[in-house]
Inverse folding.
């Protein structure tokens, strides 16, 4: 009986923490404790400390069905959380053997979430596409608290560099572009 009482006393504080309502600091330093997964065609479920939040990314992704999503960076400032996601999926649903039937669309998505974890602002940059000739050699690269992404848009003949600094998350994605040098025939 003593062991059961001791076990109950040890579990009670853990249950109190799990049942506590989310606080503005709940996301602070939580990148390792945050998971994200695809839900349906264009939504993701972001889970932190057992609390799930469904986020509709319809306006932010070019994929017809999200297949792969990961958290690149996460920052908390005041009442807001800033999340940078890498999202890839099918160009076409259902996949087939026609144009882009086996293609992939990928976006880097920046989200500003309010205290209730609803999207209050968003930006995206497409870096792989079958439909629009956009390609990146390496995809998004994270070094410390900074993300860089170099891509080429062959239709517009421009090279873009997309950057994000998690130390200044309010700034969102920054994009610079330059003309792709033309090759001589």
């Amino acid at each position: 009986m003593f062991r059961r009482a001791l076990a109950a006393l040890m579990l009670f504080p853990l249950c109190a923490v799990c049942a506590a309502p989310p606080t503005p600091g709940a996301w602070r330093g939580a990148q390792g404790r945050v998971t994200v997964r695809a839900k349906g065609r264009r939504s993701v479920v972001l889970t932190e400390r057992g609390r799930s939040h469904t986020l509709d990314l319809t306006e932010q992704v070019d994929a017809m069905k999200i297949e792969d999503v990961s958290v690149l960076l996460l920052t908390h400032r005041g009442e807001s959380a800033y999340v940078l996601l890498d999202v890839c999926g099918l160009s076409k649903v259902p996949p087939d053997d026609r144009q882009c039937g086996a293609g992939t669309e990928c976006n880097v998505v920046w989200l500003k979430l309010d205290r209730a974890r609803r999207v209050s602002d968003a930006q995206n940059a497409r870096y792989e596409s079958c439909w629009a000739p956009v390609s990146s050699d390496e995809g998004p690269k994270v070094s410390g608290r900074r993300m860089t992404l170099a891509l080429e848009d062959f239709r517009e003949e421009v090279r873009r560099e997309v950057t994000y600094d998690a130390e200044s998350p309010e700034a969102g994605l920054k994009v610079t572009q330059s003309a792709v040098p033309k090759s001589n025939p």
About this structure: The longest helix spans residues 2-19.
